[in-house]
Amino acid sequence: MAKKIKLEPIAQEASIDTNDNLLSMLLKHELNVKWKCGGRGRCSTCHVYIQEGLESLSPKSRREQQTLMLISSCQENSRLACQARVLGEGVVVELPIGMYLSEIDNLDALIGRRVQQPILHPIDGTVLVEEGMMITRSIVHQLQQAQQQIESFLAQT
Ligand code: FES
């Protein structure tokens, strides 16, 4: 049976089959949710806040708990969308603000531009570049190094 979910801050309503994970529903709605680790509970790119209805989701696995501990913006109502299955009604999901580094194909193209939204680390969710900051060559260099570390972390896990 389908359950209704509310998505914030875009104020949309969506339906999801009981026992499906939140990530599948977010992807169906073409929301800006990445799944850099392929839905294995190893990154922060599907991190969401549950504004209401935490009790209507499946419990956190050990792996999810471990990954959430690494996420700097983690709160008590944090979940990984790929790991949270919907079991009941009343779930309200909020997406964190920002763009994950792994979404940017061409970092060089950002040089000399101000970022419109924070650039986030895809593993631990830290803000790598604050909103409004001008991107310089040295920032791009740092981001490229971070990208390499992320790729090798994901390849090892
Ligand atoms: S997609 Fe990586 S933890 Fe969910």
**CATH architectural designation of the largest domain:** Roll
Chain oligomer state: single chain
The figure for the number of domains is 2
The H-level CATH homologous superfamily of the largest domain, spelled out, is: Beta-grasp domain
Q: Tell me the span between the first and last alpha carbons.
A: 35 Å
Low-pLDDT residue spans: none
Give the CATH level 1 class of the largest domain: Alpha Beta
Backbone CA Rg:
16 Å
Task: Tell me the series of helices and strands, N- to C-terminal.
Answer: EEHEHEEEEEH
Report the helical percentage: 10-25%
The main pleated sheet reads as: 5 strands, mixed
What is the compact description of this entry?
By secondary structure, the protein is α/β, with parallel strands linked by helices.
Q: What would your notes on this structure say?
A:
The chain is α/β, with parallel strands linked by helices and 157 residues long. It folds into two domains: 2-94, Roll (Ubiquitin-like (UB roll)); 99-156, Molybdopterin biosynthesis moea protein, domain 2. The chain is built from three helices and eight strands, in the order ββαβαβββββα. It has helices spanning 22-28, 62-70, 137-156; strands spanning 2-8, 12-17, 47-52, 78-80, 91-94, 99-100, 119-120, 127-129. A five-stranded mixed sheet has the order 2-1-5-3-4, with helices on one face. It is globular, with a radius of gyration of 16 Å. The structure holds FE2/S2 (inorganic) cluster (FES). Residues 35-37, 39, 41-43, 45-46, 80, 82 line the site of FE2/S2 (inorganic) cluster.
